[in-house]
Amino acid sequence: MFSYGQNNFTWNGTLRELEGSCGAFCTERGRPRMSAPLSSSSGLEVLLSTLQNAGDVESTLNILSVLDELLSAGTDRRIHYMIKKGGSDALLSALVNTGRSYSPNYSVLLPLLHLLAKVGHRDRRIGMKAEEAGAVQLTLSLLRQNIANPRRAAACLWVLQVFSSSVCTANLIGENHGLDVIYHLIPQYTTKHLHTIRAAITAFAALLCTKANVSCAVEKGYVSGLLQLYEDWFSNDSQHEATTVCHSLLCCLHKVTSSTAGRQAVFAQGGLRLLYHTTQTCLLTKGRECLVEPSVQLMRKCLPKTPLPLTSDQSAYTFPLPGRSHDIPEMVMAADESSEDEEDEDNQEAESREYDDDLETDLNKLRRRPEPDRPKELLNQYSRLFPELSHDFQELDLSSASEDTSSSSSSSSSDEDAEFSSPSFRRNRKRSTGSRDLSPSSSGSHSGTEMSSERHASVSSQSGADNFRRHRNFLSTSPSFRSLVKEARQETSSVPSVGAQDAEEEGAAESQHRTMIDRLLERHGACIPHHDPRMYRAAAAKTRSIPGFSILAFPDFWGHLPPPGHEPMPPRRPNVQRLKVFEDVRRFLNTDDIINKVVFDLEDNSLQCPCDALRFYSKFECGNLRKAVQVRRFEYDLILNADANCSQHTQWFYFEVSNMEPDVPYRFNVINCEKTNSQFNYGMQPVLYSVREALEGRPHWIRTGSDVCYFRNHFCAARGPKASTFYTLTFSITFKHQEDVCYLAYHYPYTHTALKAHLKELQKLVDPSTVFFRQQVLCETLAENCCPLVTITACPASRSWRDMHQLRNRPCIVLTARVHPGESNASWVMKGTLEFLCSSDPVAQSLREAFIFKIIPMLNPDGVINGMSRCDLNGEDLNRQWCKPDPSLSPTIYHTKGFLYYLNSIGRTPLVFCDYHGHSRKKNVFLYGCSMKETLWQSGSAVDTVGLKEDPGYRTIPKTLDRIAPAFSFNSCNYLVEKSRSATARVVVWREMGVLRSYTMESTYNGCDQGIYKGLQTGTRELQEMGVKFCQSLLYVGKDLRTLYNKTLIHHIDLDHNILDHKSHNCFEDDEPPCVEEIEYSADCPPLKGTDLDSDVNSNMADTEGEEEDEEDLRGSKHRDSIGQSQLSNMKSCLFTPHRTRQASISERRNSCNGVSISNGQIIS
Ligand SMILES: [Zn+2]
């Protein structure tokens, strides 16, 4: 019927009179019709300007009618077009013109207000425009004049609500006592004029978008009034006719509780108890379910902020850094940048932040390679990391002569220790200068000699003899495990009891224990490929941790096999979050069954654990549990240890639990998680390992836990700002066995020791006549752990010049992983990669012949060992240090970068670089790459990209993976260069080293939502498979390597056509798929369906003939008012009464509501 264009407004309707002058058409009474098109934009503009200038009622009414008809049809685009053409301004000035007269004509004013509400609702600048037009105070005074007229009052209220979308305007209304006027309009329970009442409550809520208005409302006691009103309406509304009013009241309370004072007021006035009880009623009645969610969220918000029960927010582990004071100051915890501003913030609608803000649009930064961060002379030290280039492969000649020589061949240089103590890389404390820089030229630049020796003392807090003891202690496992071992051997006499750990560390018991383990291995011997418990034990002896771990976690020692079947994501139990919040609220309201006893404290060894409580333990590699508090009989709050040397980054967990009763659900709450959302809300479960199951031949980490849910809680930092926010991960576990020892973790653990043992195992297994496998130490870490670098390639076919030449010219592929210690999935992917590259698979063989693989499987060993989530010992995210890594504080990054510089300097820029990571908030596996063009396009940059040349080869690997790797999702990949990621490995290697194919590979912790693994949680099998598939995708890379792409090889890649069929190339998956239950942490009240402003306004408009009757009715009721005229006149014919005091009982109020219309003049029935 109508169409809007950029510059024309055409009208195909049937407004007959339009041909005449506008004035003529406007005076025509009745529904306007149009017959001729209004060409160009003049049509709408003429209407609007006539509206502003028209003095007479008829024409104004006509125009309003036309406009309303126009705007009611079609989409919001029409209204936005009208706003652009000055529609709001025209309506505002018409309002001012009409409303200012001594006795305003309401037959004009009312439709005007209605239209203004509808249009203004969509005009973001309406508040400002209204102020400029002088319409704010005018509307407020119209409201004051019409509080006895529900219909007019409603219209004014909607307009005021719309004006309040601007903080300034809302404050202006507040300053003019609008808040009080509107508050006093809200009556107690009635069945009449619900529209107007709701309009009043909604307008009141809208005014509470500002700090000033909220504190005013709190000061005047309106919070208690609102609670009282809610109670009144809720309890009297037995027919559920006023549910929308109740909902609107909850919205007001939500607004009020955006401030601390508001939350405190709600709590102090018994709001929690009220909401708790009303909500329970709601749950039983169908019509009131919509009140549950807002109530639950209100309760969640109003639970008083409780500091974590810790003496310090600082990690329990501190490590003296080189060149820094030993006393690490209590760090101020940074506010969670991604959290909603629940704290005293104006709820002003933020400027819609462009997603692209973060994209790099500076062409120079995208294109120009910066100068190297170090002098060239420092690079030569890295030549030793290329043994394959200098090796002469003499053994090739000998290999036919004697089989034995293979053991001494370069490829199986099995003396790892010799490698580790490579002279220049072994940090020699005696001659140490404290500098991490390995170049002799930089020695003496730091004054760290004392530093490092002191550090050593404090780190291991042992010397000489102790060190020996420590190593010996590695032979034992955790105390609870010992009791289990005891039982397994049916020995009761000689083995010390649980808890007598220290005594047991002495001679005889120790050796006995050792043999026990050996016998256990013989009897139950787990046969796990590429894992040998004895080798693990030996490797663990050389792992250096801050607290000096002396105990091995059983799963790491014994090994893990993926369980036989797939593990589907369990469906989320409906309303689980709400149930959990309820339980948490009940902690405050009903303390009868609350125990609140600390049962485990990492820092307090003397703690006596009650015999009927669970026993916790986490002092082992990767362990991360700081404190456990028994809350109720079968419920525990768990607090994770922050990353060493800082007070943040709690997400990863790994601990041991024992002394459980079987077949009872235990609820665990990890109460200091930091991420704002988690896949735990979308089908992910934590993992559990049972020692008993393992000894019975099922050494599996399995997904477990019911009622898994992740939500924002009421805890804050122990010492830090109250504004700090934490999230609870809650889950329930029913243990199968009595007297079991179980381990629970965020994800499948993978320790640094596991890596070392695994590399040794691989070294033993590779065929040295074909595989060149060399393990070296890239550097040592701050805590003096090794950071291994592995070289894998094929031995040349012969020592002929041709073969040697081919070897020395193979392109390099550089792979790294586990820079973020909490991302253990990255290590499992890397394990898959390593095993595949060492295997006899023909594809692996081809890859070895084509490339030299340089792999740094663990960039952050210290973080991994000490159970950290994000950082290195210096408290920094190592994947943000790549621009200018500090040689002494971030040695692994410094030397990885140096190693890459070296490759560049000898003209061997890597063909592919990939850093393996884990992603906690997405499903599937995907790549982030770097593309200058895509970044510029996406950012909407004005830079002309036509002339820019870019090799599209960066897409080859993701495209291939999408075809061959079931867990991989091409649609989740992107190639954008963000400013916030400018110091990550991917971006720096791309920009500074010029590696076209530089990636971050993100693997989910959860599972897949596409492909053959759709709906399944990922296991170590799938993660390892991903590592294999990544290697296979490399076959497709590079110009000369196309020859590799031959049918024989492709045959070996498991290119299942079903996989292709399952891929969903067209759909873009959301970060988080829709959930049965909204994950709601926001400060806003969830909206109610079908109660938007438009439909309210429309129904008020439709009610054309009712106005006079209503007024009659109201007058009549006033006469019947039992309270009397004198008070009424005091109220200046107020239609609404002020509220009763809070003390009035509900029954009293109910009486007053009964029959006789109330009351002090509120909206009356
Ligand atoms: Zn990461």
What are the main properties of this structure?
six-stranded mixed sheet, 47 helices, binds zinc ion, disordered C terminus, seven-stranded mixed sheet, 1165 residues, alpha+beta
List the helices and strands and how they pair.
Elements: E1 2-4, E2 9-11, H1 22-27, H2 42-53, H3 57-72, H4 76-84, H5 87-99, H6 106-120, H7 126-133, H8 135-145, H9 150-163, H10 167-175, H11 178-183, H12 194-207, H13 211-219, H14 222-236, H15 243-256, H16 260-268, H17 271-284, H18 292-302, E3 306-307, H19 363-367, H20 387-390, H21 395-398, H22 416-420, H23 449-460, H24 465-473, H25 479-488, H26 501-504, H27 507-524, H28 533-540, H29 554-558, E4 567-568, H30 576-589, E5 597-601, E6 615-617, E7 627-632, E8 635-639, E9 654-658, E10 665-673, E11 687-690, H31 691-695, E12 701-703, E13 706-712, E14 715-716, E15 727-734, E16 741-745, H32 752-765, E17 771-780, E18 786-794, H33 801-808, E19 812-817, H34 824-837, H35 842-850, E20 852-856, H36 861-865, H37 891-905, E21 912-919, E22 925-928, H38 932-939, H39 956-964, H40 985-992, E23 997-1004, E24 1016-1017, H41 1020-1033, H42 1047-1052, H43 1057-1062, H44 1093-1102, H45 1106-1120, H46 1125-1130, H47 1146-1153
Parallel strand pairs: 3-14, 8-10, 19-20, 19-21, 21-23
Antiparallel strand pairs: 1-2, 4-24, 5-7, 6-9, 7-8, 9-16, 10-15, 11-12, 11-16, 13-15, 17-18, 18-20, 22-23
Helix pairs in contact: 2-3, 2-5, 3-6, 5-6, 5-7, 5-8, 6-9, 6-44, 7-10, 8-9, 9-12, 12-15, 14-15, 15-18, 17-18, 18-30, 25-27, 28-32, 34-41, 39-41
The structure holds zinc ion (ZN).
